[in-house]
Amino acid sequence: MRAFVCHAISDDLSGTGLADIAVPEPGAGEVLIKLRAASVNFPDILMCQGRYQFKPEPPFVPGLDCAGEIVALGAGVTDWAVGDDVVGGARLGGFAEFAILSAAAIQKKPPNLNWDEAAAYQAAYLTAYVALVRRANLQAGETLLVHGAAGGVGLAAVQLGLHLGAQVIATSASATKLATLKALGVEHTLLVQDGFREAVKAISGGGGADVVFDPVGGDVFDESVRCMAFDGRLLVIGFTSGRIPTVSVNMPLIKGFSVMGVRAGEYGRQFPERGRENAKAIYDLVASGSLKPYVGAHFSLNDVRAAFDLMLARQLVGKAVIVP
Questions:
Q1: Which of 71, 80, 105, 272 is the least buried, fewest Cβ under 10 Å from its Cβ?
Q2: 84 to each of 151, 163, 216, 220, 316, how far by Cα in Å?
Q3: Does domain 2-121+293-323 fall into CATH 2.40.300.10?
């Protein structure tokens, strides 16, 4: 089968490329999926660069999220049948024509989503849910500041925040992206390079942001510290800016806010029952139409590097999807 393989760890991604490899066989408790779509997540890039927390040994096939049709069952799998349309998430394997997934970790494809949308929602919405619901306990009427709001994870947080009844303030470094967010129904949008501290305070009535969702880090994190509300929650999602920031602990002390790390996958591994609840919660929200994945670009397996480049250039709105 054709697959996009990381043969060697490289910062410039030169160790990646398309290859022909054997179709894997499902083991006990596993299923083999013929892939219809897989979405690109920032950790896919980081793993190929050796910069993610999980560091698989090359060669490996990246790809966290995917959707497709079951074509073979491993021993002991009784809850699924060949021909079932499913969605699944794994740390590896999505950028290929076939993939192995744990039968316990897949769900039926939401009937209201096409293949691209089905592949696009899992990691992004799971991160948003763990961050806003599990970690921050976001309440209706609170002010939620979302950075990198036009990206896949940021847009998921914006949508979930609005669904939960929060006042959402979305930021980006691109006026074009902010216009897209406006068209999607976001009332408050800010360009980060203009500075956002005073605007956030004004929009929130002077109190500041109750919850900050920050996948950017760097200077954006630094300024976020300055516009936190008392008893606020600053959620550390990632560092797409490239700089891992620090905070003087007198600031959380004086302003009474918490800094919370968010690793959605690890949260589910540490708390398996909550992990299952999280997966069901986002499935129900998507299947009911309360949340709608936004796919901004499509690529073939030949063009995974182009999808990576689009993400690294911060030009993508929503999710990029790979169609085998």
A1: 272
A2: 30, 30, 38, 44, 31
A3: no
